[in-house]
Structure formats: C-alpha cells, structure tokens
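Inverse folding, one chain.
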C-alpha cells in the first residue's frame, strides 16, 4: 500500500512539475511578444481620453498687461479619428467657452491641438510624460503644457 501511494505521489509531482514548466513557457512567450511590439504609441494612449491642461504661451504684442506669458486652461476630448471636442477657459467671461470641434495630431511624441478663441489657434508640445499626468514643452512658438488625462468624455454637453 505504501508503495502505490508513493508511486501516485511521484506521478502527481511529475504532473505538477510539467504544469509549472508549461505555465512559465506560456507566460514568457506572451511577455516576449509584448516586448517585441514595443511600448504603446502616444496617440493610442491619448485617444478616447479627456485632456485637462494648462498651457502657457507668449503674450501677443498688443497685450501690455502682466508678464510675458499668457495662461490658458483647456479641456479636450480626444477621439480615435483625430477629431476633438475642445473648450478653453475665457477669463473675461469667467467661464469655459462652448465646446467646438477641432483636430489633434501626434507625431512621435509631439502633440498638436487646434484651439478656439481666446486661446492661440494652434499649440504643439513635445510630450515627455503621460499617464494620469501629461506634461510637455514646445519651441515654435514656446508652449508649456501640464495636465491630466481621464478615460472617456468628461466634457458636459457633448456627445
């Protein structure tokens, strides 16, 4: 009786060993596939999120008040097809503008957004961090971008 139990135990251990080997092999195969495809692209990470950000841009030559930078707060729902529902904070009205349809693009890590008035018509920034937080800087013209990303459309009154 002891002998059979011992043989059964050896068989169970052998099956357990091969199950572990198979699990490790399958797990590492999935990992190597993910590593081979590389990190996700910035455009794929941004699509389907709402960007809430503050941007700083040079003041226009006609503005004589304040420092050399203007601050604009914006919200943009970035769709997969490159369209966006965007609104900016209008300090004169102390409220957001109505959401308007614009476009957004990404080339490598360069994010460009077309914005409604009173913001500049277009800003572009080299994004150096993203995830729940996003930040970047642009040089032609100078732009600083700092904000966060939330899944889905967080802009009220849009589709």
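Residues assigned per position:
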């Amino acid at each position: 009786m002891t002998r059979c139990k011992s043989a059964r135990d050896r068989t169970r251990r052998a099956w357990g060993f091969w199950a572990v080997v198979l699990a490790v092999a399958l797990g590492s195969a999935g990992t190597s596939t993910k590593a081979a495809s590389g990190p996700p692209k910035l455009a794929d990470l941004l699509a389907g999120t709402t960007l809430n950000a503050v941007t700083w841009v040079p003041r226009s030559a006609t503005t004589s008040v304040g420092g050399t930078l203007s601050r604009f707060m914006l919200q943009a729902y970035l769709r997969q097809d490159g369209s966006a529902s965007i609104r900016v904070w209008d300090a004169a009205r102390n409220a957001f503008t109505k959401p308007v349809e614009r476009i957004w693009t990404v080339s490598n890590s360069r994010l460009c957004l077309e914005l409604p008035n009173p913001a500049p018509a277009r800003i572009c920034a080299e994004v150096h961090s993203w995830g729940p937080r996003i930040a970047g800087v642009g040089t032609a013209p100078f732009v600083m971008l700092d904000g966060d990303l939330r899944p889905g459309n967080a802009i009220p009154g849009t589709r």
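Residues 2-37 form the longest helix (36 residues). Residues 55 and 72 are 5 Å apart (CA to CA).
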